[in-house]
Amino acid sequence: MIAKYLRVAASVVTAAGLTLSGPGSLLAQNRGGSDTTTPIKHVVVIFQENVSFDHYFATYPFASNPKGETAFHAKDDTPRANNLLSGGLLDQNPNSVQPFRLDPSQAVTCDQNHDYGAEQEALDHGLVDKYPESTGTGSTASSPCPDYGHGIGLVMGYYDGNTTTALWNYAQNFAMSDNSFGTMFGPSAVGALNLISGRTTNATMLPFAANGTTPGNPSGNIAGGLTSGIVIGDPRPGFDDCVATDPTTSDLFKKTLVTVAGPNVGDLLNSKGVTWGWFAGGFAPTSHDAMGRPVCGAHGVGLAGDDAVETSGDYIPHHEPFQYYSQSNNQHHLPPSNVSMIGYTDQANHQYDLSLFWTALGEDRLPAVSYLKAKAYQDGHAGYSDPIDEQNFVVQVVNALENSRYWEDTAIIIAYDDSDGWYDHQMDPIVNQSNVSDDALAGAGSCGVTPADTPSGRCGYGPRLPLLVISPYARQNYVDHRATDQSSILRFIEDNWDLGRLGNGSTDEKAGSLNGMFDFDDHGRTPRLILNPADGTVLHPHF
């Protein structure tokens, strides 16, 4: 039997042009991928966009339940979460605008200001009272968008279980954290880099864009300019030559191009032969231009009418963190040499279109570690997505995994890259101090004082974000209060496959553990929960 396995493996390897030996070989990956320190053999990270914890869970588990809206009724034994029901913050709030409920008809909203410095200013020395003035964004003549008459006060809006019904149902039946934070302040690229490396350092701005012009102004993208090399904004990854997919930015030539040096989780997974992949909506080219560059032109249309607000292609380059690294990019957006190579190292280099996740799942080829990035209109980002379209995507993924053969050993982690600037009342613990000109937490240029052996420009933790774990091993109807951050997901993967730490200043070394959200003892498994993708209601609670 072993000899037969070796012959079959050898034929696959020969066809793919790979070798049978070495840490990255196919046999090493087959051997190493199943050795875990917990019963979890598959991790699926659904990495969504731009939501603060209070924006989605401000009154959890109590929903308003007005007539005509999807009703949500909490279980009697639901634990309390740290939200706006604490301390009278719904109607005695220190901000200039009081928090208010957004109903399902108001799912489409303006995008808020989520810059590195603006988010710090909103916290105002820890008073947490400057959100409308610092991150609030309303409709203007030059940038019209739905603010429902609230102007910059829109930033204080929140949804309840009548809109974010699926996430509230997942929290009811699995585990949720009310004390998880962005590793740093700042927007999407910052969170994505911290997810896979716990580090935004060693960034280099490319001197010229591909057409020979000077790239965009680095202000807000690299802290203190090129010399400090810390990503604090949304520069475009330098190892991604997909022609602009987002007509609001035309970002191939108009955004700062940045590369990042150093190891990431992909290196650790490869070294242990663990299969993995990042699956991004719209990653597959729709055509190629006259210069031979891939054109990622897919553009999905959502349910809630976001296209009337702002258009965005399905693929957004700075949401794909592996494209910043020389060793882990798929610069030309090549497909895998064969679907049998999904999760293994070949010309796709572990970077795939989201459609290949469904292929892998349907053909029983799911990698041990999968990161999912929805098509833009389903990623939850205000301005071009919304909670309704996001829910549709998340539920379809979770339902499919629960109905697959992988469910019994899978952990699904739903996490977010940044807060979008939406109000959250909880001041975050500052574990990384910084004092570059971009900082503003304790005054201009100050988020404390950077320790001598630590790079500036990494002020954090950043805003509080939703975090949920869905798994047969997740604690049921549980709210975890332990402090974690985005790199806690990195740490969980490192620990589960005994990969070691990235080191070199990675926050994986001090990240809080996610293990408190699991029950690995023999107390019975948490049952599946099948939801309706359209409204998030329960279809099949137990089987």
Write the layout of secondary structure elements.
Layout: H1 2-16, H2 26-32, E1 42-48, H3 53-57, E2 100-101, H4 116-123, H5 131-134, E3 157-158, H6 165-173, E4 175-177, E5 180-181, H7 188-197, E6 203-205, E7 236-237, H8 251-254, E8 257-260, H9 265-271, E9 276-280, E10 287-288, E11 294-295, E12 351-353, H10 355-362, E13 369-373, H11 387-402, E14 410-416, E15 467-470, E16 478-480, E17 484-485, H12 487-496, E18 530-531, E19 538-540
Parallel strand pairs: 1-13, 1-14, 2-3, 4-16, 5-17, 7-8, 9-12, 9-13
Antiparallel strand pairs: 4-15, 6-8, 10-11, 14-15, 18-19
Descriptive key words:
543 residues, alpha/beta, Alkaline Phosphatase, subunit A, eight-stranded mixed beta sheet, three-stranded mixed beta sheet, 12% strand
Describe this structure in words.
The structure is a single chain. The protein has one domain: Alkaline Phosphatase, subunit A. Helix 7 (188-197) packs parallel to helix 12 (487-496). The protein has 543 residues and is an alpha/beta fold. It is built from 12 helices and 19 strands. Helices cover 19% and strands 12% of the residues. Strands 12-9-13-1-14-15-4-16 form an 8-stranded mixed beta sheet, sandwiched between helices. It has a 3-stranded mixed beta sheet with strand order 6-8-7, with no helix packed on it. A hairpin with a 6-residue loop joins strand 18 and strand 19. The chain is globular and about 60 Å long.
